[in-house]
Amino acid sequence: MPARMNRIGAALSTDSSVDAAVVDCAERAMEQLGGETPHVGLLFTTPHHASQSIASDVARRTGLGHLFGCSGESIVGADKEVEGTPGMVLWLAHLPDAVVSPFRLGVVRNDEGGVEVQGMPGIGQRTAEQFVADGAAMFIVGDPFSFPVDAWVRDMNEHFEGLPVLGGIASGGHAPGQSRLYYGDHVVDDGAVGVLLEGARIETIVSRGCRPIGKPMVITKAHENVIEEVAGRPPLAQLQSFFDEADEAEKALIQRAAQGGLQVGQVVDEHISSPSGGDYLVRNVMGADQETGSMLISDYARVGRTVCFHVRDAEAADEDLKEMLAEVSAEGAAGALMFSCNGRGSRLFDAPDHDVGCMRDRFGDLPLAGFFAAGEIGPVGSKNFLHGFTASIALFLE
């Protein structure tokens, strides 16, 4: 049987009234479906619109049974990134050949004093190979204070390598209970929500917001998340050597990064002989010891791993996103979801609406929705990672 066509609609509202925004988004998104029934929907709102009835209102106006999403400090629509002002974006998808399995994940304490994630939609009955063969993809958004997203992603890699997972951590909340997660017609404030899609015809793109400086080196001494030596010397000493040898433009970047934007990238696949920017999993430098020259990073540092210093750079982020999008055919695109870092947008680029502008330049008036996350999930190779400063994109094909 030939594949049936996917159809997607999306609408963004900046109305300060949550009721008016729901009506506006629901009507315009449904209209774009041309009378087809939506099988799944995503809703992203700024904290201004995080009302307890919003999910049920959207579900009632669209007939959706499978809705999920979250609040974010900023949201993304087809032609605008809404930062610091009220906004809501609704994305509806008619996916006639897809199997849609929504889920809500909770966290419980086990007998050993650790935590366990519960609520996966029968995923344990399938193998990674089956998911890959079915073209499956998973989407998830989680609460930053209650959901162990990094550990969950590592567990998914261990048991379901090859199944792409995209999403992000809700942003804009500053304490437990302030984030909003949307699930069906419910609004919750903990755990995670998402959907497993099988047979939906999706391509994934993960674009970085950093660029490497210096040269790749191997960690030669480390403890937990402290890098004590790279290539036999303290990392601060290596960074100073790179600074001394850099041109004026690179020196300015390193100086800026040293004030709060320095990153360390760890090579994802050690079989790559000459890693480039896209081969690194970038992590924040959380601090440094001036006496020992060691660095504290936001991940485990393992002896033998290849690393390279990185800096946040708008020009490199712009080039990388455009290059990644250019590698994907614009023909047959039905819609897209974008999970961008809350360190992008106006915090990184001089001009507004940068990432959605790149999407429009490549795909035209494509139904698009997303939010600025406090950590983005996306695949690199056959594994998924919790990223920083990236734009993690799912492109849905017709």
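[next item in queue]
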Amino acid sequence: MRKLSGTTWGANSQILKTVYTGAVRPVLEYASSSWNTAARTNKARLDRVQNLGLRTVLGAMKTTPISEMQKVANIEPLEDRRQAKLLIQGEKHKRLESHPLHNKFQALTKNRLKRQSPNHQLKAQQRENADILQPSPDQCERLNPKPWSPQSQRFHVRMSIPGISGKQQQSDAALRSLAGLE
């Protein structure tokens, strides 16, 4: 991103923000619900990359507070996004009975180890956000229509446009109108 702009030349902040949110942040967040149990130092490395991206987008100095840069650029902190993705993933596991992790996340957590599992973190997040989550979520079924079922045979392909006849049967005025010349 620093190659796209300088202090007096290059892309503006809107373009840089689009590049950051479209190319850099997805790499930082890839599978974040899975590695949410990573060490704080590893998460801090990712946060440093975001902070550098924010400074590049805004053209800010190193002494600019990170929270202010996040507000001005309207970019959420990575930790908040990680927690939100963990909650979303947990709700998917709860609602899809056919998911392999459905039973694991429904079971009680084992508190034998000091380091917490994703299940521990998910349940902690669910306790913190109990006011916005449904107490007993509706179960969802995975939609997999069979290719041989009559449900997939509802469409009909037309090779002509209704109301428009062949080129030879149209008047000159109608042809000009259809071509957008009038």
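[queue empty]
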